[in-house]
């Protein structure tokens, strides 16, 4: 792999470990979070557990339902529904 590509894809530069994990990683997570965008599109929040992240977002159409499950709620959702 070319040295420049290795430098750009370095886990430390991307926020994957090291001293700046929270500095870079949390900013990245906030920027890429889709929850507020889904609320703007009409999705509704449904709690499925007791934790802060135990929820899913759902929007119903006449022919389908679209669900967005958070990372924290995925295990609870699967255990309750399958």
Low-confidence stretches: 5-9
Q: Enumerate how many helices there are, as a single number.
A: 5
Strand content: 15-25%
Distance between the termini: 43 Å
User: What is the helix/strand order?
Assistant: HHHHEEEH
Explained architecture:
With 82 residues, this protein is an alpha+beta fold. 48% of the residues lie in helices and 18% in strands. The chain starts with a helix and ends with a helix.
Topology record:
Blueprint: H1 3-8, H2 11-14, H3 21-32, H4 35-40, E1 44-47, E2 55-60, E3 65-69, H5 71-81
Antiparallel strand pairs: 1-2, 2-3
What is the compact description of this entry?
48% of the residues lie in helices and 18% in strands. It is of the alpha+beta class.
Please tag this protein with its features.
5 helices; 3 strands; 82 residues; alpha+beta; 48% helix; 3-stranded antiparallel β-sheet; 18% strand
């Amino acid at each position: 792999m070319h040295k420049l590509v290795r430098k750009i894809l370095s886990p430390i530069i991307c926020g994957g470990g090291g001293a700046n994990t929270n500095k870079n990683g949390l900013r990245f997570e906030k920027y890429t979070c889709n929850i507020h965008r889904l609320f703007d599109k009409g999705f509704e929040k449904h709690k499925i557990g007791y934790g802060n992240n135990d929820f899913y977002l759902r929007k119903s159409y006449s022919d389908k339902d679209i669900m967005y499950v958070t990372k924290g709620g995925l295990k609870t959702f699967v255990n309750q529904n399958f």
